[in-house]
Amino acid sequence: MKQLLSVLIMFSVVLSFSQEKDKAQLLALKKANNYVYEGNNLLQNDDVVSAEMEYRKAISEQPNSVAGTYNLGNTYIKSGNFDEAIFRLQEAAEAATSKSEKHKAFHNIGNVLMQNKKCKEAVEAYKNALRNDPTDDETRYNFALAKACAEQQQDQQDQNQDKQDENKDNQDQKDKDQQDNQDQENKENQDKEGNDKEDKKDEGDQDKKDGEDKKDEDGKPKDEKQDQGKGNQEKEQQQPKPQPGQLSPQQIKNLLEAMNNQEQKVQEKMNAEKQQGVIIQTDKDW
User: Fold this and answer.
1) All structural domains of the chain with their residue ranges
2) Is the pLDDT of residue 63 over 90?
3) Which fold does the domain 9-152 belong to in CATH?
4) CA separation for the pair 187, 195 (Å, rounded)
């Protein structure tokens, strides 16, 4: 009997606690809804700052308040804080329990992305919205716009990439041509230097050979010897050749010199005899 009484008392306490908890949740939900309602009125009057404060109060009372989070995201859209708007709308989409709520959250996410020219991401957001409500004409229209925009951006990106690739190819070809020209110029300079060295070497060898050709076996220059020989030959040609039985001019010259010398000796002897007045006999050597 006592055990049954204890169980009943415990059940009564738990039931009472549960009822109190439900009452607290209901009270919090009511407060949150009131804050959301007040925020909506402020937002309609374009008092974005005050509306944001009311929505934050709603989330504080009920963290899973889809309406509070969703409307807070919309206030960020109006204030131009797009990153925070997407963050709050994604929270609302995750916390939403109905397809209608999810559809609205994804639809607005797509709108924010389109304002930021993120067409490819917007396409995915609208797809998620249509999965939750395929009949919404506005979402389907926005999805078509986002898809066309994404394709256009992709084409532009491809064109820019092609242009960059073309510019890179042109620059690479230009660099290659410059390098080839530089290599060709270096090669021509090297060939020219090699040819100059070879020419100088050939000239040196030829000069040496010419010098050796101009020398005879005795090491004397052949030209000099040839010149001497040529001079002697010309000299001999200039002198008249003696006729048979006649003296040559050189022989006649030698005889004249001998006669002059002999005459000079005789004259000297006669002069000496005149000075002394005596005859001097000379002994001849045998």
Assistant:
1) 9-152
2) no
3) 1.25.40
4) 12
